[in-house]
């Protein structure tokens, strides 16, 4: 099967083809996801929580992401592998370039970073040096100390305007993909119309160009608080492969997320 390329992402958006993305941290799940037609795999710094057991993503290091990226890369044949720049690995353009080079050499084909503001310079710096970048706006978990928790973003008019401006700015800076986390559906829809690059939602409603969920969440493994956008696909899929196929099918035909898994 032909690998999915970076230019193919914008083509998918133009063609109205929804993109299905999942996080993966090892070769076994990566292979299963790739076989089930998942378009994009993310080695997320969520691994700090779901794999390492921390209560935030802040302890995750570039070494951690590089290790899991190498593991995942061995299981991938078609999917486009994206790796997160962990906390402060993108604090300066030079640090981001060093970390991104390591992640691409470990097998990633795109890096993801959170925020706009001073990160716009980082995005431009990486893209000019041939490193594809995925931006991430809305609820940015690396901002948890400032935010005081994990909450829906962009609910007030002023915050919504700021988020919309930031989305256009990261696209203008050269990002090829944009993750929107925990934002009201109408705002994610407006952003999706504004920008030419695909938006990938997580708790951002059905109008994004694609969706992403965390591996553990689609298998119903999350303990304690379960965010509204999480759906246990194992319950309906009956097996791991069935769960992934149900997720991919629901993303493609637009039936996930429905209103019950979105913020109005
Ligand atoms: O780290 C992660 O898993 C992520 C996704 C939730 C988008 O950034
Ligand atoms: Na992340």
From TrEMBL:
CDD domains: KPHMT-like. Pathway: Cofactor biosynthesis; (R)-pantothenate biosynthesis; (R)-pantoate from 3-methyl-2-oxobutanoate: step 1/2. It catalyses: (6R)-5,10-methylene-5,6,7,8-tetrahydrofolate + 3-methyl-2-oxobutanoate + H2O = 2-dehydropantoate + (6S)-5,6,7,8-tetrahydrofolate. Homodecamer; pentamer of dimers. Catalyzes the reversible reaction in which hydroxymethyl group from 5,10-methylenetetrahydrofolate is transferred onto alpha-ketoisovalerate to form ketopantoate. Keywords: Cytoplasm, Magnesium, Metal-binding, Pantothenate biosynthesis, Transferase. Its EC number is 2.1.2.11. Belongs to the PanB family. Signal peptide: none annotated. This is 3-methyl-2-oxobutanoate hydroxymethyltransferase. HAMAP family: PanB (MF_00156). 3-methyl-2-oxobutanoate binds at residues 45-46, 84, 112. The keyword Cytoplasm applies. It is an enzyme of class 2 (transferase). Mg(2+) binds at residues 45, 84, 114. The keyword Cytoplasm applies.
């Amino acid at each position: 099967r032909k690998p999915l390329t970076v230019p193919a992402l914008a083509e998918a958006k133009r063609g109205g083809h929804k993109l299905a993305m999942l996080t993966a941290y090892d070769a076994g799940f990566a292979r299963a996801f790739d076989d089930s037609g998942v378009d994009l795999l993310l080695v997320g710094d969520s691994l700090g929580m779901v794999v390492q057991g921390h209560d935030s993503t802040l302890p995750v290091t570039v070494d951690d992401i590089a290790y899991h990226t190498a593991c995942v890369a061995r299981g991938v044949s078609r999917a486009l592998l994206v790796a997160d720049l962990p906390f402060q690995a993108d604090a300066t353009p030079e640090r981001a370039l060093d970390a991104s080079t390591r992640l691409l050499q470990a097998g990633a084909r795109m890096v993801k970073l959170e925020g706009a503001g001073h990160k716009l310079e980082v995005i431009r710096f990486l893209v000019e040096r041939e490193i594809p970048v995925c931006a991430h706006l809305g609820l940015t978990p690396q901002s948890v100390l400032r935010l005081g928790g994990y909450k829906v973003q962009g609910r007030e008019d002023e915050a919504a305007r700021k988020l919309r401006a930031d989305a256009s700015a990261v696209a203008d800076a050269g990002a090829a993909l944009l993750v929107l986390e925990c934002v009201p559906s109408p705002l994610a829809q407006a952003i999706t119309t504004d920008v030419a690059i695909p938006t990938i939602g997580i708790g951002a409603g059905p109008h994004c160009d694609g969706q992403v969920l965390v591996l553990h969440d689609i298998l119903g493994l999350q303990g304690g608080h379960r965010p509204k956008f999480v759906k246990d696909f194992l319950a309906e899929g009956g097996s791991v492969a069935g769960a992934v196929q149900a997720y991919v099918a629901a993303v493609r035909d637009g039936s996930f997320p429905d209103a019950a898994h979105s913020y109005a």
